[in-house]
Amino acid sequence: MIESDDGHATGAAYPGGGRREAIGIPHPIRQTRATLNVGSTPVDVVAHETDTPGLTYVNVHNDERTAVEAGLVVIGRHGGRVFELQHGGVRNITFSIDGTTYVFDPNRMFTEAGVRKTLSDLGRFSEAALQSVCAFAEEVLASFDLDRRGAVVTLHNTMSGLFSAESYRAGGEYAQDVAAVAVHDGADPFDFFFVTEGAVHEALAAAGFNSVLQDNERTRDDGSLSIRAAREGLAYANAEARLGHLEAQIDMLLFVRTLLDGRAGS
């Protein structure tokens, strides 16, 4: 069962079943929220937590709901925590400072270089906006409490379009940023992992999952959490699945959990 902010069960049931493993004993999930501000805009950091230690899962794009639902299924079975940013049900965050409006991608806010680029790409840039977003990102990271964790799993959904695991193959838009790519025949290239450690990549690929390994030395700094995690020695895996592919994304999370759960921290 899932519990609301006041600790009462909502009665919501976890979807799915019959995947790679037997369903475990459900762990009640409690939900809390903290409101942070970036400029004039409030953003809720919503924490879904169990009393059972487990991996930390993070979602920052508020329109990628399949990803959050998949994360809740997995922590309900095995414990852990899901954090999500809620900001109006959209991908990007819009805010204003002194009457000027700015837009940024919250998946590009975890380094200063990334913040500079996302502000410029999506509209206006100013030093005041840069400082505001950087400060907001640090507050968000502090709320995740990753300093005491050895691993983090991000939750994303791909939309209809060109971005997939194929984008990282030779000749693709992001080929220069990665060290290895595994895309299996017959597998949906929109369902894939993006990871920072070679051993994790190899295990995922051997198990039949599409996987992309970041080149931690040569990758361009786009401000994503994968860049920050690699710099700080934190194991990182992004489970990216096509929007609506709930079963596939749950399978992905169940498997990557077997690789990283021992590094979840407490």
- Determine the N-to-C terminus distance: 22 Å
> Averaged pLDDT, please?
90
Content of β-strand: 25-35%
Largest sheet: 9 strands, mixed
Q: Numbering strands along the chain, what is their spatial order in the largest sheet?
A: 1-2-4-3-7-11-9-10-8
DSSP helical segment count: 6
The CATH level-2 architecture is identified as: 3-Layer(aba) Sandwich
Low-confidence stretches: 1-23
Q: What best-fitting shape do the alpha-carbon axes yield?
A: globular
The total domain count is 1
Task: Outline the fold blueprint.
Blueprint: E1 30-38, E2 41-49, E3 56-59, H1 65-78, E4 81-86, E5 93-97, E6 100-104, H2 112-122, H3 127-144, E7 151-158, E8 178-182, E9 192-195, H4 198-206, E10 211-214, H5 225-231, E11 235-242, H6 246-260
Helix pairs in contact: 1-6, 2-3
Report on the architecture of this protein.
- By secondary structure, the chain is an alpha/beta fold.
- It has a single domain (30-263), classed as Aminopeptidase (3-Layer(aba) Sandwich).
- Helix content is 28%, strand content 25%.
- Helix 1 (65-78) crosses helix 6 (246-260) and helix 2 (112-122) packs across helix 3 (127-144).
- The protein starts with 29 loop residues before the first strand and ends in a 6-residue tail after the last helix.
Features:
single chain; 6 helices; globular; Aminopeptidase; 266 residues; 28% helix
